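Action item from last week, closing it out:
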Amino acid sequence: MKQQSITSLPPSPEAERRARMIKYTVAMTIRVACIFAMLFARGWWLAVFAAGAIFLPYIAVVLANAQGSGRAGHVVRPDRALPAGPSAPPAAPPSDEGDGLR
């Protein structure tokens, strides 16, 4: 029988939400930097920063909502870790034939 481990459990909803918010905040910070850089850029750099400002919101949402981080393994449920039934049939009850109390 395999032992249940706390490391095989997925992250808590609060930890997952916090990780998604951090990813989204980083992407949006880069987007704001791209918008600010567009004010001073010239030539093809302007196109690079404009593309970043346009496409980063989509990328940020996709990254933030991506399921799973690859760290969580398969969760073993306790009901599947237990044996399905007894390994041997139950013993027969003792018979009263030999005591002579009739």
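Closing note: The radius of gyration is 31 Å.
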